[in-house]
Amino acid sequence: MKLRAILLFGAPGAGKGTQGKILGQIPNFAHFSCGDAFRNLRVDSPLGRVFVEYASKGQLVPDEPTIELWKGSINGLTATGRFNPEADTIILDGIPRNPRQVELMHDLIEVKAIFNLFCPVIEKLIHRLQRRALKENRLDDANVEVIRARLETYKRETRAVLGCYPEHLIHQIDSTQEPLQVLLDILKILAKIPKPAVSDGNTTFMVAPDRSVQHG
Ligand code: ADP
Questions:
Q1: First to last CA, the chain
Q2: In order of start, what are the domains of the chain with their CATH numbers?
Q3: How far is CA 146 from CA 17, 62, 126, 141, 172, in A?
Q4: Which residues contact 46 (CB under 8 A, 6 or more apart)?
Q5: Averaged confidence pLDDT in the chain
Q6: 131, CA 20 to 30 Å: which among 16, 110, 145, 162?
Q7: d(Cα 156, Cα 161) in Å, to the nearest integer?
């Protein structure tokens, strides 16, 4: 069975993580941040070492181990009851990140919508990333050269992901707005996406007509 997925898309610093964390709190949604999954690895584990090597240069980790990490994380979320593949929707933040990853995930996810958090002002992204470096102690945010390399990686490899999906799935969201407004724009669209017919008991998606209240 394919997982219902929503993609949060956009350059580093566009606010995918901020929005993903909030959206993941809504019942029947779960948030997966690929960057967080990498940062949660022990730096002395084999994949942790690979991550540090690539991330410190602003480059993407190779595709196959990235997809394996993603699969393992989803299995973990499912096994611990934080994600129910039958009833829930996964908010993917930072994956798929190039056309090859789209291909590797093709049989595993059913993409219901893509929110492209666009930011035409590159200086704004750089400023946000530098502020985050101080707040979250992130090595890849700390230096302007690495930030520029990540923005280049985004342009060169990641932007092409949008071309892999039909246009009607892609929603343009202006990420230069304040976070609350960005959230509002996303929610307005999210609320209109048809829900799965299955409910896990948390949320009732399909209300059967209640004949007892029918008169006449
Ligand atoms: P950003 O703010 O750049 O979007 P993330 O936290 O999403 O940062 O990712 C940090 C780093 O983790 C990336 O620069 C990259 O090295 C690695 N990474 C995250 N997601 C992926 C992915 N899907 N494929 C390959 N590498 C990834």
A1: 44
A2: 3-215 (3.40.50.300)
A3: 19, 18, 10, 7, 27
A4: none
A5: 90
A6: 162
A7: 11
Please name the residue whose Cα sits nearest to atom 23 of ligand 1. Answer: 95
Three-class secondary structure of residue 173 per DSSP? strand
What would the pLDDT profile of 146-173 be if each residue is shown by its tens digit? 999 999 999 999 999 999 999 999 999 9
Pocket of ligand 1 (CB under 6 A): 12, 34-35, 38, 54-55, 59-61, 66, 94-95, 97, 101, 140, 150
Question: Can you tell me whether residue 8 is helix, strand or coil?
Answer: strand
Q: Whose CA is nearest to atom 12 of ligand 1?
A: 35
pLDDT tens track for 18-31: 999 999 999 999 99
Mutate to test the pocket of ligand 1, among 7, 150, 156 (most ligand atoms within 8 A of CB): 150
Mean pLDDT of 23-52: 96
Q: How far is the CA of 196 from the centre of ligand 1 (A)?
A: 30
